[in-house]
Amino acid sequence: MAGPARISAAGLSLLCCAVLLLPTPGAAAYVLDDRAGLGPEFDGIGGLSGGGATSRLLVNYQEPYRSQILDYLFKPNFGASLHILKVEIGGDAQTTDGTEPSHMHYEDDANYFRGYEWWLMKEAKKRNPNIKLIDLE
């Protein structure tokens, strides 16, 4: 059975801890104030399709499921409503998790529909013409 001295010591310890956690008078507080300017600009919420296969299987989904997923990702005011899409531009090499085909093997060999990233960008623009597209080479 605990004696009064043991209970008093425990109570005193708790009181000391509580006092230490109290803010000290005159301590500087972190104030969020942006009266001097507009502050950082919020560009929006974005998604990444890169690294060799993060969205590879989406092309092969059956309709209407593929369109529904794309709508949830890119349509404004609906689902995720992404503002930015960053895609990896393939180069026929094993760069990270997979290989993505290059859009140009030779100087006069431009084909922007070899891989699935160009398809994904086109689908994103179809649903949201104002989406920002960024490439990762």
TrEMBL record:
Glycosyl hydrolase family 59 catalytic domain ranges (all copies): 42-136
PANTHER family recorded: GALACTOCEREBROSIDASE (PTHR15172:SF1)
Identification of the protein by name: Galactosylceramidase 2 isoform 2
Species whose genome carries this gene: Potamotrygon motoro (Ocellate river stingray)
GO cellular component: lysosome; membrane
Leader sequence segment: 1-29
Key words, A-Z: Signal
Pfam families from the UniProt entry: Glyco_hydro_59
GO biological process terms, semicolon-separated: galactosylceramide catabolic process
Molecular function GO labels: galactosylceramidase activity
